[in-house]
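Consider the tokenized backbone below.
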């Protein structure tokens, strides 16, 4: 029988080691995977500090139980250029840092203790994508994803690809392709069973057959009452594939969804219905820990994108991302545009061959995810290369004919070999460059970009980002401009049927090389900061949600008379999905404004903007008196659905401590984010509060990052991790201004 067990515990790790240590157990640092090889500060570090070799070792006992099976160690992701040894014998070398690989251990596995050794090189090898040029992100060394011990019968299921067909018809079908391992020396008949179940476990269809050879294709037909997968109702089905050979069995379970996804010259269609793409780009990086965050931290990012921000798509810039993240996108209904590793640079012949291999590895790993609707088969923002990209597109279409290809570029008049013309359009920021005189337009018409005389499927894959980087703590006036740029671009995309949608750059700030960002090794390009705390611009997304899902009302202001260059707070943008907003200033002034559809005619929910025209001459006199409190009330129809108040005299009142969740798992690296806010007397975050915060964590828990941090813009955020010990652990927090606070978490 197939057995897969976690293999993350009890590793030993060396940063400095001699070559003769590789094959001998020692006293290295005890670590649990996933693991980041280098401790990182928040900013201002040397990104070359981990450009060296590292060694991981694990001693594991084996009792001979699986001698009759095929045994491997499955690595989900190691950065990078990895060599694996068992008991001193070299098993394999794997160069790519983003795709999984398996090391076969049968030849050298012995009864008793076995020594597994992994040596990796954290340097940026120019022969391995994405390296060879400058890249605007970091590739953190380490075994940063999960590792598994895998044992399967000698004849086993290698791959399953399930392709729903006739999806929009009443009776649907499912084409199931299966590749078997170990059939060369199998003289017996192989019985194969496929069972399709719905989310409640009810059998929808079942088929039994006798197969021979390495590959088989079976069709399930006449499938009725199938619920489609979409962004609102992500209905998943479980396909169980089993084989039986000489009393040995193997079973693989695959989650699938029935849906169609097509980019057309008139926009994107999901299940035959138009859907405007509203998305963000995501790097899989976190403060202090780089790539090495576990399952629920990955899932939390998907939830923030979908539920907090209201996105319907994420682009995995610029590499395949965690299986945990993609699995959760399937479950919650978040569309995915997934792409191969790379950033602008195209290397030589060997480099290109490895990129072509990356296309195949990415597609084979992820072809059953219903959330994935587009394969990125071109190096992000690279120049044209006809033969190279002809091959990547051809391979993608051969492997998976059900999804279109895209190739993200930033050059105009680029050769169009893909199915979807995917373009990073930063035209709105270009007018600020010296010597450049572009008209102030949010987005270009697609034909002005493509140079073609016809309309084609077209998607804007990046905008804003480096052309207007904005910190969460920046001056209010810059924050308002940041918001306005997002609104302008989203409005333009919603109003142009030939643009399938827009994917903003980007979801969250991220660490980067010295050549990019703010000089502190951070690109402040996100609508959230590195800790996933929202900037004002994030509400440009959130406010586009239906008020039936969530009423949104966010004033783009710190509510201080002297924060802006000219004083006051007008014009005041209210990001909202309400029908109208009432402003009450002090006890005497009250006025109503409606969404500004004249300026933003295409947005589902334009902002409400209060300016001098919103008030009479007598009312404007109130603004010149003592600065007072304000309340904003949002209405849907005649019903007040949301209210937001701000005080004219904020004082530091208390700390608020909120964990993402209060229980952690002991059997895996499980993290929770802790958000600590400095609040004023009515519970609003103090935007300029920057006091120090001391953190201590009791046994059973582990702090990620330093134990002394500062509030940034009124918020201090960190993660804590479980250990393998069950029980409670306490987080104690101290700051000079407030009473001490604590948070109790549970490890189960």
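A designed sequence for it:
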């Amino acid at each position: 029988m197939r057995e897969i067990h976690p293999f993350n515990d009890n590793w030993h790790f060396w940063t400095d080691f001699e070559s003769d240590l590789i094959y001998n157990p020692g006293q290295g640092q005890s670590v649990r995977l996933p693991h980041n090889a280098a401790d990182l500060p928040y900013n201002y570090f040397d990104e070359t500090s981990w450009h060296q070799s590292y060694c991981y070792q694990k001693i594991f006992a084996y009792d001979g139980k699986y001698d009759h099976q095929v045994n491997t160690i499955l690595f989900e992701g190691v950065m990078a250029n990895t060599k694996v040894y068992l008991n001193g014998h070299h098993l394999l070398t794997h160069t790519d840092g983003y795709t999984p690989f398996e090391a076969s251990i049968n030849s050298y596995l012995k009864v008793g203790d076995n020594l597994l050794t992994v040596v990796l090189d954290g340097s940026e090898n120019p022969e391995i994508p994405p390296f060879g040029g400058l890249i605007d992100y970091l590739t953190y060394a380490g075994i940063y994803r999960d590792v598994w011990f895998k044992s399967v019968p000698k004849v086993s299921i290698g791959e399953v690809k399930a392709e729903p067909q006739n999806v929009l018809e009443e009776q649907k079908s499912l084409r199931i392709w299966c590749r078997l391992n170990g059939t060369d020396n199998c003289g017996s008949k192989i019985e194969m069973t496929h069972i399709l179940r719905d989310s409640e476990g009810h059998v929808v269809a079942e088929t039994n057959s006798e197969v021979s050879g390495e590959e088989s294709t079976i069709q399930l037909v006449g499938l009725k009452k199938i619920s489609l997968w979409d962004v609102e109702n992500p209905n998943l089905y479980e396909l169980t594939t089993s084989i039986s050979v000489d009393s040995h069995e193997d079973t693989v379970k695959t989650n699938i969804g029935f849906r169609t996804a097509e980019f057309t010259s008139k926009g994107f269609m999901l299940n035959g219905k138009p859907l405007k793409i509203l998305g963000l780009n995501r790097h899989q990086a976190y403060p202090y820990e780089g790539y090495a965050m576990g399952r629920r931290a990955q899932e939390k990012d998907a939830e923030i994108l979908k539920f907090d921000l209201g996105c319907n798509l994420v682009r995995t810039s610029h590499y395949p991302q965690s299986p945990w993240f993609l699995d959760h996108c399937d479950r919650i209904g978040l569309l995915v545009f997934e792409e191969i590793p790379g950033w602008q640079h195209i290397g030589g012949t060997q480099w290109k061959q490895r990129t072509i291999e990356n296309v195949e590895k990415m597609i084979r790993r992820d072809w059953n995810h219903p959330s994935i609707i587009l394969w990125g088969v071109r190096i992000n923002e690279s120049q044209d290369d006809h033969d190279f990209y002809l091959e990547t597109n051809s391979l993608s279409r051969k492997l998976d004919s059900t999804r279109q290809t895209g190739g993200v570029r930033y050059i105009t008049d680029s050769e169009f070999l893909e199915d979807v013309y995917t373009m990073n359009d930063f035209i709105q920021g270009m007018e600020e460059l010296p010597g450049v005189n572009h008209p102030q337009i949010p987005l270009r018409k697609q034909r002005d970009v493509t140079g073609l005389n016809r309309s084609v499927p077209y998607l804007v894959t990046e905008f804003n980002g480096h052309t207007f980087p904005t910190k969460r703590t920046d001056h209010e006036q810059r924050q308002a401009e940041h918001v306005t740029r997002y609104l302008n671009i989203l409005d333009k995309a919603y109003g142009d049927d030939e643009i399938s949608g827009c994917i903003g750059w980007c979801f969250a700030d991220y660490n980067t090389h010295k050549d990019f960002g703010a000089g502190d090794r951070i690109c402040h390009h996100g609508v959230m900061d590195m800790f996933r705390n929202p900037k004002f611009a994030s509400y440009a997304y959130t406010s586009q949600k239906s008020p039936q899902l969530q009423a949104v009302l966010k004033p783009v202001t710190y509510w201080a008379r002297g924060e802006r260059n000219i004083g006051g707070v007008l014009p005041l943008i209210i990001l909202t999905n309400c029908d109208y907003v009432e402003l009450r200033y002090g006890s005497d002034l009250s006025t109503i404004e409606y969404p500004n559809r004249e300026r933003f005619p295409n947005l589902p929910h334009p902002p409400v903007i209060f300016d001098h025209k919103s008030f009479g001459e007598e009312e404007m006199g109130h603004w010149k008196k003592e600065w007072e409190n304000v309340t904003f009330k949002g209405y849907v129809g005649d019903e007040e659905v949301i209210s937001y108040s701000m005080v004219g005299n904020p004082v530091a009142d208390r700390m608020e401590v909120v964990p993402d969740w209060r229980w952690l798992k002991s059997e895996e690296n499980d993290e929770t984010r802790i958000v600590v806010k400095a609040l004023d007397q009515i519970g609003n975050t103090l935007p300029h509060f920057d006091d120090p915060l001391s953190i201590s964590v009791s046994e059973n828990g582990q702090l990620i990052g330093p134990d002394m941090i500062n509030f940034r813009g009124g918020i201090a955020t960190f993660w804590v991790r479980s250990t393998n010990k069950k029980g409670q652990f306490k987080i104690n927090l101290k700051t000079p201004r407030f009473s001490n606070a604590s948070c109790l978490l549970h490890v189960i």
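The mean pLDDT is 93.
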